[in-house]
User: What shape does this take?
Amino acid sequence: MVKKLKVALIYDFDGTLSTTDMQDYCLIPKFGMCAKTFWQQANQWWHDNDADQITSSMYYFVKMSKEKKIPLSKKVFAECGRSIEYFSGVEGWFDRINRFAKHLEIDIQHYVISSGYEEIIEGSSIRKHFKEIFGCAYAYNEKGHPIWPARVVNYSTKPQYLSKISKGLNKFEDRAVNEFMPDEKRPIPFTQMIYFGDGETDIPSMTLVKKNGGYSVAVYRPKSHCKRTAVKLLSDGRVDFALPADYSEESQIDTVVKTILVKMATERDLQVLKEKEDKKKTKE
Assistant: This one.
């Protein structure tokens, strides 16, 4: 019987699966603002206060909510998730790649590690496909309004979630994340990971996965100047592939990922054959 292989496909969200920042589609327009103006103001507050960029933006949403008297809640965030627009092929990608992997006796698990908001992703049409979402999240008061960042995910914290995925930990198991666990005991070693990202916040994670034997893919908006950023990541050795963010069947991403999965399945099968040969030696 073929040994089933677990493989994690891990995605950044904004600019990787969705066409822009998830807050831009619905949340920012609720304040009567365009995305460009909001982010300019939020980033200015970040600079003026020497604060963390992601934490600052979370604060700024709460600030604008109070100033404009437009209350936010988990329900409001989830409703905004329904407005997200995706790159071509994304919504059909998960079932399609799962079916392909099933024929190879591979169990695909999909994860998101994002500086976007868990509450918004929870309302998205593709939420059902993810085993776990690791993103920024708010703490709420007794009225159900956000008051403080409960979790913040930025470029430096993303790698810890890769370790949690590898070790089979949930998002709240922080102490065990740094404990040693040999690869053979990990549910999903790094060699069985494929990471997708589009920007600077993904570089540490891309590099970590690639250096440990997995695969990293830098995606970019098709026919855009962003291709230069992705190609530079490829030139710098941070990623294995730089591909347009098109997840349609027979697209470059589709072809690359299926080829990687076939390679992983072949390596597993060869290892099984080798182990059988090794047992012959012990009998002699």
Remarks:
- The CA atoms of residues 43 and 53 lie 7 Å apart.
- The radius of gyration is 21 Å.
- The chain has one domain: 5-20+86-283.
- The longest helix spans residues 252-283.
